[in-house]
Amino acid sequence: MANHQTTPCPGSYEAFIEEVFTDPASGQAAPAAKPRRKKRILVAGAAVVLFAGGVAAGTVLPDPTASPAYKSLAGEKSTVERERDEALTSYAAVKGKYDTLQNGITGRESTVSAREAEVSKADAAVKAAEAAVKKREDAVTGAEKTKAANTAADGTWTVGSDIEPGTYRAAAAVGSSCY
Fold it and tell me: How many CA atoms within 13 Å lie on the side-chain side of 162?
């Protein structure tokens, strides 16, 4: 087999690589570069091109923060943030009042429970006193009925039908007509 060498086209990738890897002192092509080295050179070249393109595009593009839409949205954002802060402040004030009222309710509920216990005790004492009074009233009523039945006023009375048999005493001085 014959050693066949081709000359790369000017401006092609192969021509660029041959030029880069030609020994300037001897003018002969350097030994073939390893495939990894070629890939690294390609990646580095692509990165430089992309970086240069990005810098060029960045200096040409307008600043998005200078647009009317951005300024409008920034104004709306500040309004919404201010309203949010006002709402949070209002919420904190209402929450404080609520907590104060809730604590007050708890305290008042404890006081009411204690008073209900006292009222229950007092109610039981009143019922016991009412029962004692009722018992005394019944006893007094019975004594009054007995006294009324055993009391004779002026007049004529028949023992057994008008008055009960028994011993009677006059409450006041009696005259000669009493017997």
Answer: 9
Q: What is the pLDDT of residues 22-54, one digit of tens each?
A: 555 665 655 555 667 888 888 899 999 888 888
Q: Are residues 55 and 119 in the same domain?
A: no
What is the maximal distance between C-alpha atoms in the chain? 187
SS3 173: coil
Using CA atoms, how far apart are residues 154 and 157, in angstroms rounded to an integer? 9
**For the chain, what is the domain count?**
2
The verdict on pTM exceeding 0.70 is no
Give the three-state DSSP class for 159.
strand
Statement to judge: residues 52 and 81 lie in one domain: no
Count other Cβ atoms within 10 Å, centred on residue 153: 5
Is the torsion defined by CA of 76, 77, 80, 82 positive or negative? negative
| Residues 6+ away with beta carbon under 8 Å from 29 | 18, 21, 22, 23
Q: Which amino acid is at 40?
A: R
Q: Give the C-alpha distances (Å, rounded to integers) separating 59 from 46, 66, 70.
A: 20, 15, 19
Determine the structural domain holding residue 89 and report its residue range.
65-139
Tokens of 161: 């039908």
Residue 100 forms part of a structural domain: yes
Domain match, 32 and 84 both: no
Distance of CA 29 to the CA centre of its chain: 81
* Residue 6 maps to a domain: no
